[in-house]
Amino acid sequence: MTSNFGKPVTTPTPVQDIDLSIIIVNWNTRDLLGGCLESVYGERSSVNGAQIPTTDHRSPFTGYGSPITETIVVDNASTDGSAAMVRERFPWVTLIESSDNLGFAAGNNLALRTAKGGHLLLLNPDTVVTEGAIRRLWQVLAAQPTAGIAGAQLLNADGTLQTSIGIYPSLWSELPLLNRRLGSVRKTIQVNTTAGDLSVQSVDWVSGACLMIKREVVEAIGPLDESFWLYTEETDWCYRARSAGWDVLLVPQAQVYHLARAASRQRFIITMLHFYQSRIRFICKHHGRRQGSIVKRIYWLKARLWQTKPDHSPLAHAYPDLPAREIAAAYRTLQEAMAPSLESLLSANWQ
Questions:
Q1: How far is Cα 25 from Cα 102, in angstroms, rounded to an integer?
Q2: What are the domain boundaries of the chain?
Q3: H-only helix segments in 244-288
Q4: Which residues contact 141 (CB under 8 A, 6 or more apart)?
Q5: Rounded distance, CA 349 to CA 351, Å?
Q6: How far apart are alpha carbons 301 and 308 in whole angstroms?
Q7: Phi-psi category of 78—alpha, beta or left, where left has phi over 0 and alpha has psi -120 to 50?
Q8: CB 71 within 8 A of CB 115
Q9: Which candidate, 321, 303, 323, places its Cα nearest to that of 313?
Q10: For residues 94 and 188, is the Cβ–Cβ distance under 8 A?
Q11: What is the pLDDT of residues 307-348, one digit of tens each?
């Protein structure tokens, strides 16, 4: 398969006994990655009482109607010993070591080229999977022919609900007051799975922190768009899937702890710049450059406002421990980034 999004991607023919490929892209989050893999390993169990060897890359999950999986970790040139940790502690993981930091989209696409499962799960390294979460996502997609993507309900470290869905970025989504009228849930659906009925929600997009997609969808719409170096690439994937006729579902019963921004906290200013750049890139791609230019100006104005009210800004909400002066300085940087032309902004590369 040749895709217009990034490099050509050839997805292997699914292997008969691999139902699901779990893909984790890591960059310098060794300890978090270890916790994530431990939670995935917790889903591994025995089949008919026979323990699966820890060196076997195929891992069955507990329970009736459970998938046989493989787990792939792409290490994006980490310098904290992440790759060595995976080799030592998790020999059942397929490790792909990149010589460069490819970003989220390209890192996942690298794994997609070797993944063998009929379903594919993108999982952040700063997540902890609760019992049965992955299985429920797989069961919902298996039971719902019209669904192409399913996402988990993310939880904060204290167990409270974390934002896991959203509306597509557009000029209207960025306008204060008006955006409050835009609902995130399209409808609620009852899905009959092998584990019983589950109530799921049809939404615009689900978070890429834990997103499962059918292989046939990837083959139809292509891999992740690598022009999104960080953020909004999963939103673009969901948009393309829905445009091609597949539904996108949130499965509230599939719960995953997401230690939000644990990885991005390392360089929060660069992370923030990528976030706003990616939203503008999405708007330009799907709604036109005129809307993108207007939204860029809106972000410039918002950055200027948030410098004067740092305690009420999105950064203050995302990183409660950040001093107000650092928040104000970050928004000065954002305002400067939004000042040049649209072309300059979209071609900027902060690494």
A1: 10
A2: 20-262, 265-347
A3: 268-287
A4: 119, 147, 148, 149, 150, 212, 214
A5: 6
A6: 11
A7: beta
A8: no
A9: 303
A10: no
A11: 999 999 999 988 888 899 999 999 999 999 999 999 999 999
Contact 274, 231 (CB under 8 A): yes
Q: Which two tokens stand for residue 20?
A: 């699901």
The DSSP 8-state label assigned to residue 44 in this structure reads B
For the segment 262-308, what is each residue's pLDDT rounded down to a tens digit? 555 558 899 899 999 999 999 999 999 999 999 999 999 999 999 99
CATH architecture of the domain with residue range 20-262 = Alpha-Beta Complex (3.90)
Spatial separation of the C-alpha atoms in residues 233 and 8, rounded to whole Å = 17
DSSP assigned state of 169: P
CA distance 349 to 26: 19
State how far the Cα of 185 lies from the Cα of 107, in Å rounded to an integer.
30
Q: Tokens 């459970």 map to which residue?
A: 66
Rounded Cα–Cα distance for residues 319 and 268 (Å):
9
Q: Any idea what DSSP says for residue 8?
A: -
Residue with tokens 């490099």: 7
